[in-house]
Amino acid sequence: MLFSEKRKSITTKAAGQISSGFQNTRLHHRSRKRIKELGEVFTPDAYVVDMLKLINQKNRDLWSNENIILFEPCCGHGNIVAIIYKNRLFGLYKKALQLGYENPVLYAVANALNTLWAIDIDTQNVVHSKVRLLERSLEFIKEKADISNDISVISSEPEFFAHLLCAINWHIKENETLSSLSDDKNAQTNASKTQAGQKWFQNNGHHPIDFENSWANHFQAQQADKLLPFVFKRANRFIENLLSGNGRHDVEFEFADFLIRKSTATSRRTMRTKDLATG
Ligand SMILES: C[S@@+](CC[C@H](N)C(=O)[O-])C[C@H]1O[C@@H](n2cnc3c(N)ncnc32)[C@H](O)[C@@H]1O
Fold first, then answer.
1. Is residue 189 in some structural domain?
2. Considering the domain boundaries, does residue 193 fall inside one?
3. Is 40 touching ligand 1 by the criterion CB < 6 Å?
4. Residues 6+ apart with CB under 8 A from 140
5. Which amino acid residue places its CA nearest to atom 13 of ligand 1?
6. Which of 159, 201, 215, 263 is least surrounded, with the fewest CB atoms within 10 Å of its CB?
7. Ligand 1 pocket check for 14: Cβ under 6 Å
8. Is 144 within the bounds of a domain?
9. pTM to 2 decimals?
């Protein structure tokens, strides 16, 4: 199973309305208030592409090396993270094809996600980033499998998609940058270097990030202890409901709510077609 493959990794530092396609990648900022409170100004795509080219010049195998872990410390609504993810998908896919790996498409998705971390202090931004990664994953798999429908593609690999939901949740999180990269002793002092960071820390506490503890590694460790993560059971149930046309909101996977609307529409269409066929 792709999501339980263990890869050795070295670290390179290198709710508003949630609906499919809602993110405006040309959005510069949402409000003056948010610029003041969060420093929220989004990087335009063209600058992101140029910045990533500079990093790529120094690390030629940046996109295809699954031993390199990438971290976006203030991800906003995902402008940088979405492009990193896209580049990783294509880099890993190309490599998997060249090396004759089994199922290069799923290999690329699993490894691109397991080596990508992103955090932001703002809940809405984190959800938006998750939606974008889920959408990009679906677009990539659909294109390569030549399938146009999200629900059909999910039904071809339901367990993989349960892992995908868990991996997005595990790697893209609400967290405070300066404290998450600090030890227990220094976390509060470091968070207090910004007003927003201090406030977040007071409400949420210290959540250090362990870049080695990817979703795949966590899942594998649980399996070794003969355990199945509870969140994985929930993800499987979410997918099952989705595929049966009875999609149900689960707060854990709110970033996948747009799929519920798609599955309901698909099952309505199927019922209408059956009605017409039976006269
Ligand atoms: C300038 S925006 C950049 C967003 C994104 N990186 C981009 O380039 O489009 C800064 C982001 O940092 C987040 N932020 C502010 N203080 C933070 C903190 N202490 N820890 C984590 N994120 C923080 C804000 O919510 C905002 O989304």
1. no
2. no
3. yes
4. 86, 89, 93, 105, 108, 109
5. 74
6. 159
7. no
8. yes
9. 0.89
Amino acid at 167: A
What does each of the 279 residues of the chain score in pLDDT, given as a tens digit?
455 444 443 333 323 343 334 455 667 778 888 888 888 888 999 999 999 999 999 999 999 999 999 999 999 999 999 999 999 999 999 999 999 999 999 999 999 999 999 999 999 999 999 999 999 999 999 999 999 999 999 999 999 999 999 999 999 999 999 999 999 999 999 999 999 999 999 999 999 999 999 999 999 999 999 999 999 999 999 999 999 999 999 999 999 999 998 887 766 666 666 666 666
Structure tokens at 75: 């991800």
Q: How many domains does the chain have?
A: 1
Ligand 1 atom with minimal separation from the 122 CA: 25
**Ligand 1 pocket check for 247: Cβ under 6 Å:** no
Nearest to residue 251, comparing CAs of 4, 45, 32, 15? 15
Q: Which domain holds residue 153?
A: 2-174+213-278
Query: For residue 180, which atom of ligand 1 is closest to its CA?
Result: 20
Residue 173 in 3-state DSSP?
strand
Ligand 1 midpoint to CA 273 (Å): 47
> Which residue has its alpha carbon closest to ligand 1 atom 15?
38
Q: Which residues pair with residue 173 across a beta bridge?
A: 119
From the CB of residue 97, how many other CB atoms can be counted at a distance below 10 Å?
A: 13
